[in-house]
Amino acid sequence: MSNIEIKNLTFGYNNQGTLLFNHANLNIDATWKLGLIGRNGRGKTTLLKILQDQLEYRGEIIHQLHFNYFPQTIADKTQLTFYALQEISDAEQWQIERELNLLGVDPDILWRSFDSLSGGEQTKVMLALLFIDENNFPLIDEPTNHLDINGRQQVAEYLQKKHQGFIVVSHDRHFVDQVSDHIMSIEKNKILLYQGNFATYEAEKKLSDDFERDQNEKLKKDIGRLKQSAAEKSKWSFSKEGEKWGNPNEPGSKVAGKGAIGARAARVMKRSKNIEHRMENEITDKESLLKNIEYIDPLAMDFQPTHHQRLLTVKNLQLGYEQDWLFQPISFELERGQRLAIIGPNGAGKSSIIQVLLNQFTGSVTGNVDQPQNLKISYVRQNYEDNRGTLTDFAENNHLNREDFLNNLHKLGMERNVFDNKIEEMSMGQRKKVELAESLSQPAELYIWDEPLNYLDIFNQEQLEKLILSVQPTMLIVEHDQEFISKVTTEQVVLRRD
């Protein structure tokens, strides 16, 4: 397979003031398993669209590949899955079944309607279709969004065994680490390529950033000295001219006529301007060397520790619908300062447990759940499409401190030019940040977060990790990202199907 050569790629959306790519140059080997990472809004999906000639750009992209994109679009999701797939591919049944077996999926799934499949099942079916033709180059955009921990591991092992190259976008660090042999990072002012997986990228990036921070500090000190020197030399120039021409208020002082004073003023101004220009040039030269490092601002949360030692006591809890139990009975306790993760496959009842704690579950319940009365709970939901209106109105309607709410949104990476947009018009990543910033801005004794990392980039995940480890709030978390769970939780409860 050939390479993908990108020359002087320049692109920006019309409604944005800055370019996403500015004369970018890259040479990508088509045999690489390339992990594409970067902050939300940096242009990861845009780059995949550009490769497919879906957007107009300046520059040149040279390759001899045919790209296949994930996720593909199914027009009629009510069809049986096999016939739905025939809309976008002429793959034969045995080929699809072969890939499904490699993904650990029962091929009988082909004879169910596509819209009856879970999000994870739909993901695996579409990935199976993607890799049938080894002559195509796969572009895989966020395959982990609807996969549980086991599903992510199955897909990771599937991609590891593939001999062909691909580009994969994912915010799951563990997943990217498993499937990639090269990393491409879209940063503030450049695109960088690294040989190795995500762990290699992190190590090399840290060394590079540490060095650049040291250089930046030296440059900033130099710039400060130059600015001070410029001011002092300008002041000295004026004072010398004053000494030369005398002070009219002092007896015996030599005072020039009006014409001489005007000429003197002009010379002083010219000398001052020359000094100023020289200093400005030196300062500009220094400032141009400053590196555009990714600074991540710390978040804030309004955690209010309760006087209660124990916030939750769950004994022999079992949930289901019409006696069809979702999981085997579980028991656990949540003490003040603990952070408990509920782990289990999709459909095992993780979110249902949260609904019970919030008195929102409509199915069958056995066992006991005890918690203090009037416990202040802050909840991050999986589904937050009912968040609507302007951010100011949203803060007021939800009794949030507007300044704290907007500050957290900005620190999460939402640009201030988006602040005037209505929430329902924002991207899914931006809407997720609204939901998360709301939770952080609420006074709470217990935080219940249901899949908080969906749509968030790696930098946001690190922000949340640092915040949680610093504040150490009491939390109950449902999440499929193994790296996040291992870093922030103190206890884990594993659900097993009945």
Automatic annotation (TrEMBL):
PROSITE patterns for this protein: ABC_TRANSPORTER_1, ABC_TRANSPORTER_2
Segments for region (Disordered): 232-259
Compositional bias segments (type: Basic and acidic residues): 232-244
InterPro entries associated with the record: AAA+_ATPase, ABC_transporter-like_ATP-bd, ABC_transporter-like_CS, ABCF_ATPase, P-loop_NTPase
Record's keyword terms, sorted: ATP-binding, Nucleotide-binding
Pfam families named among the record's database cross-references: ABC_tran
Top-level taxonomic group: Bacteria
Residue ranges constituting the ABC transporter domain according to the UniProt record: 4-213, 312-497
Protein name: Lsa family ABC-F type ribosomal protection protein
Organism: Lapidilactobacillus mulanensis
